[in-house]
UniProtKB/TrEMBL annotation:
PROSITE patterns: S1. Residues 102-113 have a biased composition (Gly residues). It comes from Alkalihalophilus marmarensis DSM 21297. This is S1 motif domain-containing protein. It holds the Pfam family S1.
């Protein structure tokens, strides 16, 4: 029996490790169910979900050239279409403004906010660097003054 990606099969758990479970498939081949593919929720100890000798339904996720078979118990469960993950409930924002549209990130529609409303052009890289340098020097001098005052002024050492 050839094992194809996407097919659901019955198998028997033959071994359990800290990273997953080995499942013997029809035809004598063995595949691995990674610990992340055992259940929909977080699995800390795989022994709470599976036992050696247990019959399980698995879905073939991938078959590598060297013969390794990747399996999933989680994806083998029958679910109605569109229920992969429940939609996040919208909640009012603390500022009272309407919530941002979902989808985030900067994509073809995400990052362009339209023309700028202020009349100043965006600062150049050199302007940003000079401002950073100025702020940095101010902070360093403030820190230096504070440490000198704690030592007794002008870098004098107590003896």
């Amino acid at each position: 029996m050839s094992i194809e990606v996407g097919s659901k099969l019955q198998g028997k758990v033959t071994g359990i490790t800290n990273f997953g479970a080995f499942v013997e498939l029809p035809g004598g081949s063995t595949g691995l169910v990674h610990i992340s593919e055992v259940a929909d929720n977080y699995v800390k100890d795989i022994n709470e979900f599976l036992k050696v000798g247990e019959e399980v339904t698995v879905k073939v996720v991938n078959v590598e050239k060297d013969g390794k078979i990747g399996l999933s118990i989680r994806k083998a469960k029958d679910r109605p279409e569109g229920s992969e993950r429940p939609a996040r409930p919208s909640r009012p924002s603390p500022s009272g403004r309407p919530p941002r549209p979902q989808g985030g990130g900067r994509g073809p529609q995400g990052g362009n906010r339209g023309p700028r409303t202020n009349s100043r052009p965006a600062p150049s890289f050199e302007d940003k660097m000079s401002r950073f340098l100025k702020d940095s020097e101010e902070r360093l001098s403030t820190i230096k003054r504070q440490t000198e005052s704690k030592r007794g002024g002008r870098g004098a050492r107590r003896g």
